[in-house]
Amino acid sequence: MVDRLVHSEINSRRIMQVEQCFGSSGQPLAMPDRVLVGEGILTKMCRKKPKPRQFFLFNDILVYGNIVINKKKYNKQHIIPLETVKLQSIQDDGYFRNGWQIISPSKSFSVYAASSTEKSEWMAHINRCVQDLLTKQGKQQSDVEDSPVWVPDSDARVCMNCHKSEFSVLNRKHHCRKCGAVVCGPCSSQRWLLAEQASKPLRVCLNCYEKLKQGSGGGGEVVAEGKGTANNGNLDSSGDSSDDENEADGLATSDQPTFYGGSATKN
Q1: Could you tell me the residue range of the domain that residue 46 belongs to?
Q2: Kind and range of the H or E run holding 118
Q3: CA distance 197 to 106
Q4: What angle do CA 33, 35, 40 make, to 5 degrees?
Q5: Model's pTM, two decimal places?
Q6: 8 A C-beta contact, residue 180 and residue 207
Q7: Confidence class of residue 252 from pLDDT cuts 50, 70 and 90?
């Protein structure tokens, strides 16, 4: 689909511009045979509310970040290898339309496009890149367990584990990294090493903890709440390392994504 852009000067310039927009906070993106396939704004469902994020689709990775200055500066860069990515369409539900889930072992979340056409183009291009990458590598998609898509905070009034504890300013909401449920502190007091998601033990609900412990024959790493594992900014965040209340929120308006290989829905 984009083979003609490999090693081209225009592709190198595009990738260099993306690197410059992330600045020193981002990882280098220029690699042999890497092509920038497309870019545009999608609305990512974060922990507390939907927020616009800038996405860059390459032929081997998906990159996104927070928008500081549109088309000029981004931060909090996230990189997801495409060979692990699966897509699942989301049915329209009132205000939330044209959405799908991006699912992988390291990170899973929901995104929304501004129109059904944009949704179709994004999904077609991502799926095409995944299939082309696996074909070139002579691989099939891994059967490693995927990370969960987190339940939004707004969907839970009480703990989804004990079904008793009501959330409040003092009784904070937490997310289980194994199932994505919103749970209270006592019901998420244990942590487990989920190697595909992080190198440190992550918060899990008591139900998942018991299942993980049984599955490992009673082994595994137990870390009591507030002990052993420091909060590194990711343990209770949305996967964007912060959920900045000062950021613009809501579903993004159309910014007409650009796909450099042409339309993927007409082929």
Answers
A1: 3-146+245-259
A2: helix 116-137
A3: 4
A4: 160
A5: 0.84
A6: no
A7: low
